[in-house]
Amino acid sequence: MALKKAEAILSALGLDRAEELLFHLPRRYEDRGCWIDPGTCAEGDALTVAGEIVRTKLSRWGARRCSFDAWLQPEGRLGEVRLSWFNMPYIKTNYPEGRRVIAHGTVKLTKGEVRLFHPEVEPWDDGEEARIHVDRIVPIYPLVEGVGQKALRRLVYETISDWKGFPDDPLVGTGAEVADRTWAFRQVHFPDSWETLKAARHRMVFEELFVLQTVLACRRRRSMEVVRRRSEVVGELVERWRAGLPFELTAAQVRVCAEIDADLGRARPMNRLLQGDVGSGKTAVAVHAMLRALERGEAAAFLAPTETLAQQQAGVLRRWLEPLGVRVELWTRTSKPGDAGLFAGVPTVHVGTHALLEEGVDLGRLGLAVIDEQHKFGVLQRGALLAKGEHPDLLVMTATPIPRTLCLAFYGDLDVSVLDGVPAGRGRVKTAVRTREQLPKVWEFMKGELAAGRQAFVVFPVIDVSEKADLKALGSGAEELKGIFGAEAVRILHGRMGSEEKEAVMADFRAGRFGVLAATSVIEVGVDVPNATLMVVENAERFGLAALHQLRGRVGRGAATSYCVLVMGEEGAGRERLEVMERTGDGFVVAEEDFRLRGPGDVLGTAQSGLPPLAVADLLRDGEVLAAAKQRAEVVVAADPELRSHPELRRRVERWLEGGALRAT
Ligand code: ADP
Ligand code: MG
Fold this sequence. Notes:
By secondary structure, the chain is α/β, with parallel strands linked by helices. Among the domains are: 28-140, CATH 2.40.50.140; 237-266 and 281-398, Rossmann fold; 429-585, Rossmann fold, CATH 3.40.50.300. It is 36% helix and 20% strand. It starts with a helix and ends in a 6-residue tail after the last helix. The site of magnesium ion has 4 residues, from helix 8.
């Protein structure tokens, strides 16, 4: 290929060197091997035939319209194949009688004839081109504007032909039983067969997951080597707090608190992930852990993803802890505590949003950091919070259950506790999927709930009407609700409001001063109003299942039966997904289904784990490879923690965070 053209393709793909093309992997493959007999194929089959053109015909109708047909006699096969092109008379010169070609296309059967319309055709004698585009399993690449599939495929082919192979292999000497790296890259672009493609892909997936697992194994090892100097216990706050609680901790809460106490008895810092469905009572567990820090004369921090949530948690903590003589400081964009020096020596819990992480925020002797709804944060923020202390203990909490495979893949460096079940005395939540036409009935039902003194949420996907006019917007939706329930009964809440305004609305809602809170998904996490029994979500198909589960968790917090109504924007929109919500109230089942239906990227992304996205591995399909890679990585790191005898692997591990496993060659 001409150098200029090659350069144009590379620059369109944003690549500097041709070898980077090796990492531009096919999106899928097409079987264009000449292994089917035209006589046996059916309408719609993909067919590739090699043979000689035995007859041609050019027919014209009127001035511009014409068709050109060429009949191909496949070699060693029965039956003819008719190739047809419309309005391309010049093509005639390409395919004279007697020319040997390979044609590929989708079969149409007309009057007993096997026909290919506008097929892809390559000369057959000129072996090279034919070997690239047809007569083989052909790679189909993801394209960018201005680059044709064939040109790109040809450039990859040429690059691979000139390529000497990788100088190193990070898997050498690790005992992994996989195919050679260079061979795998060649096969993944131009496979000899489906079997070799499978072996090649396996090699690449294994490598990617193995490097990732080595990163995690190293991280974990390092965190185990840290020695945390724990101060002497000087108080008995936990006991006093438990004695004053209006409820008994559930068995699950007691168990997880014991797991935390065991962590806190060790020399290394705690590194624990607490998974518990919405309403399972994670806050109480966090309080237990925080009080343990305070008992040693250290401070604790509680990081929340939104201002509303930080304020709410500060409220809860003040109610529980101030009677014990604990100060609760709130750090948000608008609220900064007074001079910390004044309260030196007073046990303190710092609650806040990202404002907690800012430079200059002094959290005293930080002994424990809690991150609530951790999927809203990245690993950088985790690091920033930990940096406020000297190897403080860490408790991250999530209400979005993480499917087992993902947990294994991304949280291999954390210990995991599961808070199963919800505290007794909770009402059930019934979930129903409804169409917009059925809304009047929903509003009727809502009137009944309001009349019984209960409250309701109505969630909208957007604040204002956008170009996507079929989305219900909060602004107009709230007006509609006011028309139905009265202006006094409805107030709105969304992320663009000032925090004081938001807090005022939430406080009024909590106090029951109005019945309907129309909001965006800012209320998705954590908001706790036990008297709210109805959650209506407009354009529910626009939300991920995990988000819907969170929203549903906003009701059912009191003893009364609650209801969650998921309204489809249009009949049938995402009904299958939404019906998962009708079937189960179990957050783990919801997460597994979401994972299955949408893939891991949408459930959690890899961003929250601080790791780059996977390039080849697909955790839905590659769970077994993952387990094998993890096991192998642990063996390698245990035997050689510094990876001294694996320089290439070490380089990759160090680079991982910059660019992704495969790209970092
Ligand atoms: P989440 O796990 O979603 O963060 P919260 O910690 O906000 O749940 O708890 C939800 C509600 O349950 C709160 O009102 C909390 O006070 C209450 N709660 C927590 N533990 C118990 C318990 N053991 N018994 C009864 N209610 C509890
Ligand atoms: Mg919570």
